[in-house]
Amino acid sequence: MESTTSNGGRAFSRRWVLGAGATTLVAAGTAGLTACGSSGGSGGGGTLTAFVYGDDAAKIQVAAIDRFNSSAAAKKAKGKIKLEKVPGSEYPAKLRTAMGSPNAPDIFFNWGGGSIKAYRDAKQLVDLTDTITSDPVLKSGFLPSVITAGGIGGHNYGIPMRGMQPVILFYNKSLFAERKLQPPTTWDQLLDINTKLKKAGITPFALGGADIWPELMWLEYLVDRIGGPQVFDRIKNGDASGWGDPAVLKAAQTVKQLIDDGAFGKGFNSVAYTNGGAPAVFAKGKAAMHLMGSWEYSTQLGKFPDFARKDLGWTAFPTIEGGAGDIRNVVGNPTNYWSINARTSNKDAALAFLRDCASETYAKALIANGDIPTTTNAESLLDASPNPEFAKFQYKMVQDAPAFTLSWDQAVDPNVSTPMLTEVNKLFVGKSTPSQFVSALQGLK
């Protein structure tokens, strides 16, 4: 089970590496992006360089590159890959610097969406849209919602290369059984459950408000369920007027109603996820539910293993009556992606390497590490997962999703992400009204 626990830490740290890196990226300026990229293969002699986020999971990419370099595909493409593991805290800044230099990587790890928009705008990325459509391995190899979620403006610039991380509504099975409650499938059911739990002296939801991004998850799902995924798609693709969509205001009003009604209890703004505060509130029965990324399972397994094994339940975020969003829609971190530098000296070798991410061998390595692959061949392999039941729930959730919305703080431009999170927190702590929240977001550029 150790690999599952580490997976939760990685997933959690990835959210914050991007958030913390956003300021660094902006500070570095945009001028460097117009400098020359990889101009002859940064490794020379037919060797391409790949940058990867240097956490424990990088061992899967190390093995994949070793496998590729000795393969017939590498020989046919006349190229090999050299992997450079970049420490997580340094990754966004080092990538930014490298992409503005003659030593840019040919292939690089990213989060999709806003994390690559500056490179796309500077014409530094290979547009993979037509390649994916015309290549049977890439076209049929990955879940469509995950491929789409990492793109920008309807174009694909990345190939999935790590596990999925959907946001899930977790609940305490024992608490629900004791009070004869069922997981909510509609918003009215959720509100009814809240009322019953509060009467019993139990806070409905744990919330690590001190970290802000757990608050964002609520808005992501509410906007989707009220207005459908197209609302945030507009915003993600650079249309700031999308923040003025009625669904955003309604979502903010709904959040305020939840807070005023005590759904998150008192003092949630001083509770953090990072230090284990929110998971502890949930595991100890002080709160009955927790909206969190899929890494919540491994977090609980590491901190409260008995609770994780016996009492941790999971379900989809409920529908909202009259809303346009499908209950099957998912928000969160679809996965991480490999992108290709437009100036690579050997695009064929880069693409040949990326195809390996769709292989059964690669999927099995992810599963052994506690991850849930985004490949179409993964479902039959999940019995080997540390928790097959939870793994299959996640996989089916993403497989069936008509839309998978990338976490807002990763989908928007880095210079928008930090002020957006500030406005989210102001809404949750009562320093701005729902209408002020919408106005502030509309002013972000």
TrEMBL record:
InterPro entries: Bact_solute-bd_prot1, SBP
A Pfam family this chain is assigned to: SBP_bac_1
The protein's name in its UniProt record: Xylobiose transport system substrate-binding protein
Domain of life: Bacteria
Source organism of this protein record: Streptomyces murinus
